[in-house]
Design a protein that fits this description.
The chain is an alpha/beta fold and 493 residues long. The chain has 19 helices and 16 strands.
Length: 493
């Protein structure tokens, strides 16, 4: 939103300033060509919501403050309300608004200490990043410019070693770090950057090529526009060791067909040759060796988890993976019936104990347990073993018997050229088992699954709850049934 009394092409907000630090072209497009913006992803929406929740918890560090509303309220009114509260002697403000030199900012928490006002910038991250210094430095620049005496500036971020027991202890949930010296040193840089950004906004679209800055420190929402010249079979498909897409692009190499062979790793050579010649690669001996590593009873397991900044349950830490669902297929021997088991937590219930006790009853002792990406499933099981030490021996036994179905695809023992360098189950399953696909599913990936789970837990509409529940069960079931069918097809090879 641009204030009516501010020139369109020179106005900056804190978020615009940070966008400009990442890329002047992104700043220009945001102000002058916003229609070129891409859609906000599920992951970005989740980060935004998580940030709001973390901000509310951080306000408890300074209780009794006054909140300055900002939704559907003009910026000028926000500034007036902030000024009025300061004049009244209010010592703590949440989301106060300020403007100086046509730069508008809001502060997460502004608190009046013994020696002057203190800035507290709240982040849902677990460490300090360079971009956060610029974030606070521009706030400091504006506040100093308004004449407000600022004594200190702090970053407030998540302590991922905090373990919840009972009510959230905000003084332990957060780490507060003094960054005053760092942001004071940035003030000359901030002033220079503001001037540079204003010059950018007055001119034509900046000529800035694509690069790592498109994704760092944040994914830019104009990637679809700026990357439209990149062909489908580009060097950016290359993964792992060997040639790097960005380095090749800098040398003027953009298409896979133009990459010198000597720069490619063996895995990348398979990818490039497969793509260019539409050729599949199958190392039958390696596939046979993998299949011979399996045994009966044979199980196929997949967990769905959530990880959030504010731990929900006793004994859990911020961002710890909490399983709320699994799907399990089991077969006692080659000729026996395939059995399916599943679990999906009910709303507002700690699912961990019920989930692990049910799972341990369903997996036979010493069964071979096939998963896709074992590091994830093993991590979930280790957490469960830590939470429930009485079951640790059985859980460790499952961990020791895990076989990773991802391995032959990761090693490119099986590589189908349409996989385009990926070895995820989402890429491999529809190609190896064409009758199975995520394309028409209501839930297509783990991020969507987590969002559906939270929507289900917060809803009071029985129809919506049932719809999300069925979609979650269908999605998780496809992951495990897909593994069953993949192994069957591999045997056919």
């Amino acid at each position: 939103m641009t204030p009516n009394n501010k020139p369109h092409n020179t106005y900056l907000s804190k978020s615009l300033f940070l966008r400009g630090l990442q890329c002047y072209k992104s700043l220009y497009l945001d102000r002058r060509r916003p229609e070129l913006r891409g859609e906000i992803s599920y992951a970005q929406e989740r980060l935004f919501e998580m940030g709001k929740e973390v901000g509310k918890y951080a306000q408890r560090l300074f209780p009794g403050g006054v909140f300055i509303p900002f939704e559907e309220i003009p910026l000028s009114e926000q500034i007036i309300q902030t000024t009025d509260e300061i004049k009244k002697g209010t010592s703590t403000l949440y989301e106060p608004a300020f403007s100086y030199n046509n730069v508008f900012i809001k502060v997460d928490i502004l608190h009046k200490g013994k020696n002057g006002w203190e800035i507290y910038e709240v982040k849902s991250a677990t460490e300090i990043k360079d971009i956060y210094i610029g974030d606070v430095a521009v706030q400091y620049y504006v506040l100093k410019g308004t004449g407000l005496p600022i004594s200190r500036a702090y970053l407030v971020y998540i302590n991922n070693q905090y373990v919840r027991y009972g009510e959230i202890e905000v003084d332990k949930l957060f780490i507060i770090e003094d960054i005053t010296e760092a942001i004071e040193q940035k003030q000359g840089f901030i002033e220079e950057e503001i001037q540079k950004m204003r010059e950018v906004l007055k001119g034509d679209i900046p000529i800035i090529d694509i690069g790592r800055h498109c994704h760092e420190p944040y994914d830019c929402d104009f990637i679809g526009f700026c990357w439209q010249h990149v062909p489908e079979d580009s060097v950016f498909e290359l993964k792992g060791r060997g040639a790097n897409g960005y380095e090749l692009y800098k040398q003027g190499i953009i298409h896979l067909k133009d990459v010198p062979q000597e720069l490619l790793s063996n895995s990348q050579k398979i990818h490039v040759e497969g793509t260019l010649e539409k050729k599949d690669f199958i190392n039958r001996e390696a596939v046979k060796e993998f299949l011979e590593s399996l045994w009966y009873p044979l199980c196929f397991l997949d967990f769905e988890t959530f990880n959030i900044s504010i731990p929900l349950f006793d004994g859990t830490r911020p961002y710890q993976q909490i399983p709320y669902q699994y799907s399990l297929y089991c077969k006692d021997n080659e000729s026996s019936e395939l059995r399916h088991y599943e679990y999906l937590a009910k709303a507002e219930v700690d699912p961990r104990k019920e989930l692990i006790e049910k799972l341990l009853k369903e997996i036979s002792e010493n069964a071979c347990v096939v998963v896709y990406n074992k590091s994830f499933e093993i991590g979930v099981l280790k957490n469960l073993g830590g939470w429930f030490p009485e079951h640790k021996k059985k859980i460790d036994n499952i961990i020791n018997n895990i076989i990773d179905l991802m391995s032959p695809f990761q090693r490119k023992d099986i590589y189908l050229w349409q996989m385009r360098g990926s070895y995820s189950i989402k890429a491999a399953l529809p190609l190896l088992v064409p009758e199975l696909s995520y394309k028409d599913m209501n839930i297509k990936d783990g991020e969507m699954a987590m969002n559906a789970y939270f929507a289900m837990t917060k809803s009071h509409d029985p129809a919506e709850i049932e719809k999300n529940r069925n979609a979650l069960l269908e999605y998780c079931k496809l992951d495990t049934f897909g593994m069953v069918k993949m192994v069957e097809r591999m045997r056919g090879l």
